[in-house]
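Troubleshooting: if your tokenizer reports a length mismatch, compare your output against this known-good record of 273 residues.
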Amino acid sequence: MRVLGWTRLTQGEDWSLFCLTFLLWTSMSGLADFSTYLSRTVTGRSAHACDGHPLRLRCPRHSTISIQSAFYGSGAAGLCAAEPGARARARHRGCSAFTALQKLLSECQNHRRCQLPVHHLLFGKDPCPGTAKYLHVDYKCQPTEHKRLVVCEGGAMVLRCKPPRVLNIYAAVYGRSPAHPDTCPSRLARPPPFECLNHEAQRLVSKSCHSKHKCVVAVSNQTFQDPCAPGTRKYLSVAYSCGDPREQDPPPTPSPPVDTEKGSCFLSAFLFS
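Known-good structure output:
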């Protein structure tokens, strides 16, 4: 039986039992709904600017800025041009302003666009006077308007937008979750009490549909690798929107695959806890 993409067990029964117990504990402690999955799979972005230059964050229509992390200070040698002697000092010490994240959240969170002049006065006290500093921000563009379509195993999912608008795929999962027992009821008398979800569905749906006016995806184990126990009825769930092709983003990239069973176990629990 494969659970959450396990394809082999090389660590012995003790590890398998631990991983299964860990996933069950995670599920019982609070299963995330689809919106939480969506927020974690939207493509991450980053931006940086040196002292004296503006930092610009921008999201496409129907999405807003969600700040993930922020750093203001020194540390990346040669990232920003500096006055004579400043780079040498930067190599010997790093510094950071602890108010950076708070400032970015107050100025940019939930806005579509944001521009800030990068200067130590923006963050209060200069964390290291005389040293070249920069502001680096990691953020996501969280959809404010999206549609969700669910199709049961054995069917065909049809996504379409009225031209000239095109499809923007935000997230996709194939499998099933105990959080939605009434969605495509399982043929099993007692469906498994844990999630079995194929994360590769996002890449496959994006490849077939992103930036197109219409697409058709067969919902089957031939299209997506079966992540569940035999006899479990699965479904494909997709979050998408129709947008202006001139403002289209590249398709989101799922998290890189994990090579070990241990990594798969903890990554799965993190994504859906």
